[in-house]
Amino acid sequence: MPDTLLVILAVIFVLGIAINIHEFGHFLVAKLFGMRVEAYSFFGLGPRIWGFKVGHTDYRISAIPLGAYVKLYGDEATAPLEGGDSTDEKVPDSELYELRPRWQKFLVMLGGPFMNIVLALSIPFVGALMYGVPSMPSPVVASVKDGGAAAQAGIRVGDRIVGFDGKENPTWGRIENDSKISPERAVPIIVERNGQRMDLSITPSREEFKGNVVGSLDMDPTELVILSPQPDSPAAAAGIQKGDKALSINGVTVTGIKSFRDVVQESKGEPVKLTVIRNNQPTDVTVAAKDDGKGNYLIGAGITNQSQDKEKASIGQSAAFAVDANLEVLRLTGRVFGQLFTGQRAVKDAGLSGPVGIVSLIAQIVREAGFAGLVSVLAVISLNLGVFNLLPIPLLDGGQILVLAIEKVMSWFGRTLSMAWKERIQLTGLAVILLLIVFVTFLDISKLF
Q1: What is the extent of the structural domain holding 198?
Q2: Rounded to the nearest 5°, which phi and psi values hold at 39?
């Protein structure tokens, strides 16, 4: 399949599902309450350019390529963005959104984010049930890069990490995630060596990864495991297989992901001898990295320091894993924004992504891991979409919930919020969101250079 077509299909797959599961949430709750749905745009805002009608609902594709929407009869606050005012068709008062009690309107608004969060929970839950949960390596240091952050902190091979950034007995995943969002910032770390606890401080080194600034500890807990090589890649041509454990390159022991990438980059496309452990036996393969056109030499296979082993999980364990995975995403996101507001992190280094960044990420993932690799990306995007829509910004669901709250307070004084003011609020929200899109798109483009 041509590379461009593959990327287009991948983007449609991820964003199409994440956005439409959100709109389906609004649609489903409205239908459950007996509200009449005038239109369901699967793609785009504004005027209808194509569609078909089933019952009272027009299923359509719209002209402005920004998201999707569900338009309810009687809800005219966002009419300019949803193809204009409702038709002149006579609709019973019992089916009009505007005449429903506020608690029903609140649940309709909540339906979209709720479905996004359900999808984000469902993906790791089903994955854990089918394949088990990852067997996380013990936070015992197996390798330390010479002169790296860990070596400078006084960490040695064999040390067990029993505390990191205030967290007692952290998993290696937690240690790695927290270090990524703390480049060049001293972090307290406690190691256990020969039965003695030692309080140390480590400053993760700064490095660029997929256009973002991240921190690296320059140490690993386990051997590096190679992921599935891409078709027609140097790795596939060399016979590298999924699950191979990288042992050395040109006779030099592999000490971490960064050192592995550095050796490949320094080869400048010249063949290197990679020794891997396969079926508990050392195997030598010769691979020549290929220039991606930007001066990056790649072998066409992902690599991770996480064990690929899985442990069978019960329904309860799978549910706990799904919840923990999503809470970890929210925790890291919250810490990054906290660093932004406290001045510990520059905006350009925050990892904020707009349309260009998201498409670039999806393109990179589908090239490296195929469509199967997009499932975890879909879960993260769906979670962020659900949470973002709960923010009290006009036009978003959180903003419309805020308007409902304002109407409730005004009703105590015998006042109402006019339709003209509702439209102004929504258009103000559109302006804020467009400015935000322009800003993050600028950040995305600046990363490319």
Answers
A1: 143-220
A2: -150, 145
